[in-house]
Description:
31 strands, Jelly Rolls, 535 residues, eight-stranded antiparallel sheet
Amino acid sequence: MFDEARLERLISAYLDQELTADEKRELEEMLLASSRAREIFLDRANWHGLLREHALQGQAALLMDEEAPAPSSSAPPDPAPKKIIPFRRKAAWLVAALAACVALGWWLLPRPAAEKRGIVKRGKGTEHVALLAQAIGVTWEDGSSSFGTGSALPRGWVKISSGTLRLDFYSGARVILEGPASLELLSPDLARLEKGKLTARVPPPAEGFTVISSDLRVVDRGTEFGMNVSGTNDCEVHVFDGEVELQGELPATAEKALYQGNAVSIREGRWTSMPADRGSFADPAAVLTAAVRESEAQLAAWQKDSLDYRSLPDLKVYFDFEGLHPGDQVIPNLAAGADESSNGTVIGCDPLPGRWPRKGALGFAKTSDRVRFRADGTTPSLTLLARVRVDSLPQSHNHLLSMAPESVGEVHWKIDQSGCLVLGVRAEAKLASDSWERLTSPRIVTEQDFGRWMQLATVIDGSTGTMKHFVNGKEIASGKMARRPAIQLGLANLGNFDASAPEFQTNIVRSFNGRIDEFAIFTRALDASEIAAIK
């Protein structure tokens, strides 16, 4: 049930455009939870529209009376008026009814793209120019931005102390960067090399790709070339295939074009011609081989750890998503001693590669995709842990995990549209905003993180009444619980929201868009060191 007097006050504030953000959420929850509340809302919105239309018509009539010429005394008298309802008054009823429906729909349907906040709107400062395709043995320079494989790279600096990166520019140019190196990404076809080595392979669509170093501009003319910058006035350019054009402050005797097999060394303003040395630069094929080797080594280490993981104390649910094929319906719960009744049922999701090419995962793309499972029992404490790849955040609520509605102790775990990790624990049975204990993290997902794998964990510690969020093993948020309900396990959805209660509308969309390749539930509060140790 809901407080009808409170609903009336909220509707009145809504119609007067005086709702606060908290009141707006409260009204939305009432409307979603109760058909009677929706009837009241429609009725009040309908009358509001009629009264407004009546006032507008009255004002218009006064204006017309003031401006209309006086009737001629010789004019024949008007015939007796017919008792009919003017069309405009009929229209007023239709407009008011339509306005009420639209107003209710505004609450119950997903917001239009124009209202999406934060990461959905891309400013000029966040324009992406390249993709980080591979990273082998990379150590990022202290104080600089770090990126994961698959990340879209914005304009700005990429700085590594060691290792090798493969960058695929949106123009089509492919660059191998060898550390230590500093490369500034300026546009899809322009970069500045401050230090380090790079090899650029430039196909025809990317012809004109340019790399700057001090006063030198190396402009591709359909080629593969290498650059080595070891100081402000110390640079080498090697052409392995095709041709490059050299621009800038060149000596009168310097060649403006450099062809296959040739190189130039520039030291303290002195130019020296020499043969190109392919062996001193990274070979793209060798980089690919090294990336595969590193991936296989990481997968093998995870497979070993996963076997130990299954027997950890109080592990209730563990899905590793390995060995799945298209059409498979069951994901086994691999937690030690788990019953088959706790296995997951796949609904709509497709098997896809996980964080490594040969690691299994499930893709959640359609709004109906989910994994349905049951984990019975109650517990004072809980830990949720998942390896996820967020591909987009199209919904206001993008659920990682939801439990059946209207149960005290149910847990909801999601990422909101601004990219914050959110935990909700129902502390009271009433359908109201203040029935929940919540913890919201700072922003953890930006557009830069789309396509990037991360470990998310959330801990509910019933003994201390605390909630904590972790990202990649590091604590990012914590908060106290005013109420400490026992966590009620039961039917749950991975990657979606369960709106099975009759009071809920079945068209609520709160689906997750991305991939999950590992998921676990513990019926105890893991500490920070335990979470950090789970690779």
